[in-house]
Amino acid sequence: MSEAIIRFWFAARREKNADGTTYLVLVAPKTGERVNVNEELLRSANVVLGDFLTAKLCPGSPLKDFKKTQHKAQLKVQVEGNVAYVEDVKVTVVNVNGKSFFRGQYFAQASSRTDVNEGEYLVRINLLQKPAVVSPTVNVHFAGTLPKPVGAVFGAGFAPSPPPPPQFQVGAGFTAAKLTKLKAVVLDVKRETGTHFLWVFDKKTEGYFVSNTLPLQKGHFFEALFTQQANGKWNSQQYEKAIQYPIKGGLDASGKIWFKTILKTYQPASGNLRYAQATSDHFGTIVDVDSKLPSDFSKKQVNIQRRRLGSEYVWVVSEVL
Q: For residue 256, is pLDDT > 50?
C-alpha cells in the first residue's frame, strides 16, 4: 500500500454541484493539480475559501487530515464572491509565441489577459475555472491580473564593499496594540519571505519588518511605527520615511554589514564576565570577543558587527580604528 504524502494546497474556488451542495477546488500552487472537496467537510476542519492548507494524499483515496496553515511568504489573499485572489505575487514576464505569461517562485505559470513588457511585476493570481490549453503538451491553470512593475529597490543602503585584495489583560477585554514611532536600520534581508532584520536605535534592540512590496537594502535608515512583541523585540507595522542618521558604515566583502561607533564606558573581563565589554550611544553593549581593545581603553573609535554568541546575537568589535 502506498504511503500517504502530506501536500500543500490553496483553497482557490467555490463551485456548486447539481444537488446544490458546494465544494472548494483545492489546487497545488506550484503544479496546478486540482482536487474537489466538499465545503462542509473543509469547514469542519476550520478551512475556508482563500486558505492555504496541508492534507494527506494517498493514491486511490480521498484527501484527508486537512490542516489550515500560512504560506511561507505571508502572501495576502482577497476573496471576492466564489474566487480567492492572491495579492502582490512577484513574477517575471516571458513572451511565448507573442503571448505574455507570468512565472514566479510560488505559483505555476499564469496567463496574462494583455501583452506585458518583459520584466518583474507584482500581480494578482487566481485559479482559472478550467485549465487553458496553450499547446498540446502545456496547460495553464492560473491567471495573473493588475500587473505592477517592480521598480528599483526602494531606500538605497550601503554600497557593497570592493572585493578584498588577493592573498588575505485580565477583565478589560481586547486593547489595540500601542504604536510607537522609532528609528531603525536594516541589518539583513530574507528576500524569499520579505523579512527585514533591523536594529532599532531608540530601544537599542533587534526588530523586524516584513514586506514583499517594499524591499529595503542593508544599511537603509528609516522611521516607522512599531509594536513591541512578547519577546521584547519590536516589529515594524508601518513604514513611514527614509531618514538621515549620524552613523557611518558599509558592507564587507562577504556582504555583512558593519558600523563605526565611539565606545564609552569600558569593563574588562573578570570573574563571571568572560569578555570585556564597552557601551555605545547608538548600539548599547559592545562585546570584545576577539580581545581587540587595548587595556588602556579611552573612548576608542571602532567598527562593530553583529555576531552570534551562544544562543544570542550581539555587537562585537571587528576593528579598532
A: yes
Please give the grid coordinates belonging to residue 273.
564576565
115/91 Cα distance (integer angstroms) = 15
3-state secondary structure 19-80: CCCEEEEEECCCCCCEEEEEHHHHHHCCCCCCCEEEEEECCCCCCEEEEEECCCCCCEEEEE
pTM: 0.48
CA distance 35 to 13: 11
Question: What is d(CA 315, CA 298) in angstroms, rounded to the nearest whole number?
Answer: 19
Give CA–CA dist 210/69, Å, rounded.
Answer: 18
CB atoms within 10 A of CB 317: 24
For 281, how many CA atoms within 13 A lie in the half-sphere containing its CB?
9
The phi-psi region of residue 287 (left if phi > 0; otherwise alpha if psi is between -120 and 50; otherwise beta) is beta
- Among 104, 115, 109, 102, CA closest to 31: 109
Task: Specify whether the CB–CB gap between 180 and 228 falls below 8 A.
Answer: yes
Q: Which pLDDT belongs to residue 8?
A: 92
Cell of 136: 498540446
